[in-house]
Specification:
The structure holds 2 protein chains of 2 kinds. Chain A is mainly alpha-helical. Helix content of chain A is 62%, strand content 0%. Chain B has one domain. In chain B, 66% of the residues lie in helices and 4% in strands. Classes of the chains: A mainly alpha, B mainly alpha. At the A-B interface, α7 of A face α8 of B.
Amino acid sequence: MLKVTSSPHIRAQENTRYLMRWVLIALAPSALYSVYLIGTNALSVILVSVLSCLGVEVIWHNLRDGKHVSRTWWELVFLLAIPLLGMVPALGAFVQWIECVAILVVLWFEREHRFDGSAAVTGLLLAMVLPPMIPWWVPFFGAILAIAIGKEIFGGLGYNVFNPALVARAALLISWPRYLTAGWFKPVVDASTSATPLVLFKNRLGAEVSAVYGPLLFSNTGGCIGEVSAFLLLLGGLVLAWKKVIHVEIPLAYLGTMAVFAALAHNDPIFHLLAGGAMLGAWFMATDYVTSPLTTKGRILFGVGCGFITMLLRLYGKAPEGVTYAILFMNMLTPLIDRSLRPRVYGHIAKPVRGGK
Amino acid sequence: MNGLTGEFARGVVRENPLLRLMIGLCSALAVSVKLESSLFMSLAVIFVLTMSNIVISALRRVTPENIRIPIFIVVVSSFTTIVDLVLRAYFPAIYSRLGVWIPLIVVNCIILGRAEAYAYKNNIIRSAMDGLGMGLGYTLVLLIMGFVRELIGTGAITLLGATLIHMGSRFEAPILAISFPGAFLAFGLLMGLLNKLEQRQRRAK
């Protein structure tokens, strides 16, 4: 293909698959570590979430592009019928594994479909923000919401306004609050459920929790699948920053703002950075290319806004955590930030723009 | 389709007040949480819309242009008050559920919009057909949304105290469907579906 463009040209290795592969690699230690600590529950949530996202994407793309339409409809019916097997008492406990195998079969049939990897990242991120002791169909419906409502209905990757994984989490949080606000993991005692550090903090028991950074950094806290170890998340984030996969100014502005806010409000800044979804949100969610601003100045503003709203919700809101809503809210402002901080084109004389400064 | 049938049919799909003109959305999103409240709200809107269209059309030659809006409001609010009192007298339970949305029919954009855009310029029969057609379009959207949202969000459909459909105790209803975000989601999906169907129809021609 001959493509005529003006110089200079740079040939870059970067494409969506490359970037998404690095995000998956960076998330892998946290995910594997949580599977190691929590066991099959975490594994099933992660597998169901990732595979369902891939399945929904392939079915949507086929139906949208009119490829293998009749086969795709059968696949859709097939995958949606399997949860009904849960009605059969003997099968109740294995439905999630049957569904996983069924999706794998469907993906094998659709093996010529070109995945860009973004659905896998969405699925993994969705699993990371769910409690591990959750019925398997919650991540299943979450994946449908994330890919269909969060991404494809806007026109697919690149057109979505909100981070798909967070859209799904917000929708699931409204839909089934009792599953989303319980079922946390507490590894040391007996792998049963317990309150998260932020819930304890909310109930004014924060003093004793905030004294221990070790558990927050290395695994021993209650929380979502992705919250078991702030250290591994930080490591993954730094790897992404080193490979220049993410723009480092967003997490820095995000976490910096949180720390400053916490210090000014006489709270423990380090506790707030390590607890809850701050690390996951700042390094992996807020840095989504599609839903964050394009310019450096815009990205700093975006990060500051996220950090500010997160702390506002944590300290003065009703719920213990605010990362989800903070990032979704700033996602909404991203087009506005991009428009108001548009860089001046070199050599272009600025003239009063309609509605501009 | 021409003449009176055309006036009637136009409001149902092609110029559906909710999905196409996108007016009167506020109360529609709020009351579509239950099939029952959707049904009664629709009946109230059909009544007020048709009657006020007739009266405004009848008075159009004697209505001074400068003060036509206050006159429309007086006419609309008379019929709204009738609906309000009837519902309060005979269906107190439904009246308390619909709450403020019944008195607010006075300022519903659909009714004032049809008065201004149609009834003020057309004769009585055409205005009546316009009111009925627009009312039917409103009703269809509201009933679909009310049915889907109540069924998914609560797992059952109840109408006047009788349970019509029950999904069973194993069904864990997502609260999203009966929350406000669910209203916007259902409305947006319905609008997208209609556009998709119309696109397909146009392509088939």
